[in-house]
Sequence to fold (76 residues):
Amino acid sequence: MLVGFALETDDLETNAREKLTRKGLDFIVANDVSAFDAETNRVALITRDGKVDRLPEMPKSEVAKAIIDRATRLVR
Fold:
């Protein structure tokens, strides 16, 4: 399972999709650079087959749980 992270300033999902393909990832976690020093984050989980799950803003610990959950479901 290869998971990547895309911290972007512009064209978030477009740039994240390009990175996902270029690096041969199973999915990528895309988020805006504005979340870097914040307590919360809003991310998009983008899979290799093009599905996008845009998560609502939530504490970073909850984002981490969502990432682990997604990876676990993709492995099964």
Summary: The mean pLDDT is 92. The helical segments are 12-23, 60-75.
